[in-house]
Each structure stands twice: as structure tokens, then as C-alpha cells.
Amino acid sequence: xxxxxxxxxxxxxxxxxxxxxxxxxxxxxxxxxxxxxxxxxxxxxxxxxxxxxxxxxxxxxxxxxxxxxxxxxxxxxxxxxxxxxxxxxxxxxxxxxxxxxxxxxxxxxxxxxxxxxxxxxxxxxxxxxxxxxxxxxxxxxxxxxxxxxxxxxxxxxxxxxxxxxxxxxxxxxxxxxxxxxxxxxxxxxxxxxxxxxxxxxxxxxxxxxxxxxxxxxxxxxxxxxxxxxxxxxxxxxxxxxxxxxxxxxxxxxxxxxxxxxxxxxxxxxxxxxxxxxxxxxxxxxxxxxxxxxxxxxxxxxxxxxxxxxxxxxxxxxxxxxxxxxxxxxxxxxxxxxxxxxxxxxxxxxxxxxxxxxxxxxxxxxxxxxxxxxxxxxxxxxxxxxxxxxxxxxxxxxxxxxxxxxxxxxxxxxxxxxxxxxxxxxxxxxxxxxxxxxxxxxxxxxxxxxxxxxxxxxxxxxxxxxxxxxxxxxxxxxxxxxxxxxxxxxxxxxxxxxxxxxxxxxxxxxxxxxxxxxxxxxxxxxxxxxxxxxxxxxxx
Length: 539
Hints:
The chain is an alpha/beta fold. The protein has 14 helices and 17 strands. The chain folds into four domains: 8-116, Rossmann fold (3-Layer(aba) Sandwich), CATH 3.40.50; 183-239; 248-395, Heat Shock Protein 90, CATH 3.30.565.10; 418-532, 3-Layer(aba) Sandwich (Rossmann fold). 48% of the residues lie in helices and 17% in strands. The longest helix has 84 residues, at 118-201.
């Protein structure tokens, strides 16, 4: 049981003798009844005591000079905190009915007439002291109950939050389990096709047509594997904030049109009725990443729209934004999936034998890339079988002033000689063979020190250098080539499996001219070589 403060009794009387007699009489019972007595010589002093203390009861003399007992009682009960303090008027006169009514109107609960009979005073005081103690005990219990209620409410909120977090974690774990199963499925399919095609190339009875078909399969499935790895890496970088945008003014209408033309040229839109409606609108964006956004949305539309379906791409703008929409007549999105369509690992269909395939991370990556550009993306669908619309919006900027490109002299000096430094035997052999097929004179080396020796003797125009070399790495190779007057002006292209902004920075700081991420597509490699020696390369 918590400790309860002693109730206090206030005695107000202007007569010193009467005040002393009354307080002395009460003091006899103070220890027994467990209360404290406070005295005041005037109404004003009594009011000051009421401001400082809570009282169980006030014994108030009626006839006092200045502020009498009625005025004092009225002042006490006008204050909200002291309005409920019981007041017993003490008087030497027998009060008539009017005086009693006046006293009760001002908050009196009883009268005591002098000379006071001790037994009557004791009985009255005991009642009010007991009531005060009981009220104080109830207040403390109420405070404890309120505190306990607050604690229980907080505990309930915490438990509810923990239960929700656990449900979310379970859903995420389930989604990740499904994702890993899908990833295994998505990786094994192209690997199986590549393995079968490679085996066919080694069969003695294979026709030239079959071998050509097998080569196409290997190339196509290798690109598919590369896209899977790129999506995984890009999502990881985007979610961790490690993607740095190379922002520049660009016309979204041109970019959308270029992306669609690429799809049409490669035949990927042949089975669908694809229409385009664009108007010029300039944004500050990273060309590569915006192409990735558009390509993912177009891939998504093609994937979930049956052959013969319609896909419409539009680019509109207002005073503040440029919006790009990809609308399809395909499978649509159910109401339960629509709010989660941009979450990681979410797909409309999650069975391994689904026709569409994919990892379920494309739209999550799209949303993050749009957000990095300061934009927003939304999805709309009227339900399953009703098609869907994906729209992203980017801040609009004013078109840049036209700049004339400087004219470059172009002389035919032949293809550049190439040095390939790569420690992976198969990778080195295949890339050297491809470069030779394109008419390049190629020398190669298996490690960094050997590569430096070949460079010193061969003096190539360009070197392709793997970063992860044994002995000395590609960074050190580049630094030594730049430090050697004989190889200082050689063009250097880094080949690496690491594509973060930090990796690109280290490559350029080491002295490389370009940075290519493995696996390197032959077309991208030819473009990189051409950019290093634009006048010398003809493919």
C-alpha cells in the first residue's frame, strides 16, 4: 500500500486565545487520527494557506474583522482546486435560518457553536479526516490504475506491432523463398540451353544449319543470363543508394522513340500491335537508366500481353512534368496485387511453370530508378484480364540551348592493334578469337607482369585489361603503362565484374579511358574500341 500524506486541518480565527484553544484541542487527537493542524489569524492568511495546501476540512470563524468568514468561504470556493473543501463555521451566536442559508450558499457543511464540546468536535473532525484519507487513497489507486492502463496500452501496441512485423517478415521470407526458387529456375533454363547448344557444336554429324542455330542460342541465352545478373546487381545498388546518376538534359520523346525502334529492329514487338504517341519534353536524366526504365516497362507489357494484343506508349508533358505511359491489353492486375506491384520479389504468377518467367524485381528496380530522378511511378488496372497502365513522371526542364558540335577530321589509318590482358584462359581465348574475326591484330597475356612485357615489345594502340589479375592487378598495370613513356599514350579499357560508381572512379583514377562490365557484349566492345579510336576502326 503506498504511503498517504497526512490530511491537514485549517483553523481560521482572529482571536488569539480562541485560536490557541482550538488548535491545542485538535493537537490532542492529531497523532491518534493522523492529521496535521495549521492555524491562520485572518481570512487573508487563511486564503494564502489554501493556495499552498490541500485541506481535509476548514474550521472558519464567522465574525472576523476585515474579511469575515462568509467572504473567506466564498473566496475559497471560487477557486476550482479548493471548491470542494468542506467548511465548518465556528460562531458564538446561535445562527438563525437566514444566516444558515447564507453559510450553506457559501459552501458550509456544518456549524459549531462556542463553547465547543470536545466530543462533538472530535466526532465531526474524525469523519472529514477519514473521508480525506479515503479520497487520497482512491486518487492514488486511480493514478496507479491509469499508469497501469497506460503501460498495458503501450504493451498491447508493442505486441501488435511485433505481430505485424512478424507477419511482414514471414511474408518477406516466403517471397524470398519463392524468389530463390524462381532464380534457380531462371538460371537453369538458359544454362541448359547453352550446355545443349555447346554439346551440339561438338557432334561430328551436326549440319552447318544446326551449328549456326546453336551459336544463335548460345548468344541469346548468354545475353539473357547477363540481364538476370544486371537486374540483381542494379536492384542491390539502387536499394543501397550506390547508383550515381550521370545527369544531362535529354528529350524523353526521342529516348522513348529510340527504345521502341530498338525493340522493333530486333523483332521483339512482332507479335503485338504497338503504337506510339509522343510530344517533346525535356528532363534532367541519366540516359542509360531512363532507357532501363522504359525497357523494363515495355518488357513487362510484352511479357503479360498475349500475342496479338495491343500496347500503346505515350509521352506527354505539362508545365511541370513529363509523363511516360505504357498501356497494354494483357492479363491485367488483380486488386489484391495492385498495391504491391512495385514491391521486391512480387509477381502476378509465382509458379515455376509460368509462361512469363522473370524474377519479379524489374518493377521494384524501375520505381527506385524513377525516385532517384526525383519522379514518381504509378500502376492502374481494372482487374484480371483488363490490361494495365504504368505511368512514370519526371520533373520537366527547359530545352537546352543548341550547341554546335565541333567538326572532327577523320582519316583512315586502319584498325588499332589490341593487347588483351586476361587471366581466365577460356575468356581470353574466346575474346581474342572474336577480335581476330573482326580484323584486329591481337596479342594477349595471362597476367599483369606478362602484359607489361608484351606492351613494351608490341606497342599496341589499345589494351583491354582485366582488373582482377594475379600478381599485380589491373589498376597497377594501368598506372605502370601510363608511367612508361613508350606506352603512355596507349588507350586503356578496363574489363571487370564490378560495376559500382566507386569501381568506375577507381578505374578512371588509375588511368583507364573506359570501363566495361563483364560479360562484355561484342557490340558494346566494338563501340568502346571505336570511341577510343574513332578514325581508325572499321567493323
